[in-house]
Model the fold of this input.
Amino acid sequence: MSVLFILIIVSLIVASGFLIAFIWSVKSGQYEDGYTPSVRMLFDNENIVEDKEIKTER
Done:
């Protein structure tokens, strides 16, 4: 039973470490994208072509 408590405590410590690392990377601007907005106007927009077949009832 004591092994279970040790594993729970260790897993909580590891999970909190990952959470702290994630929050730190978000606050430091790791996920900011400064490149894409400058080239977004160069991307081609795909025009949606609808099927305009005339369906006749016979």
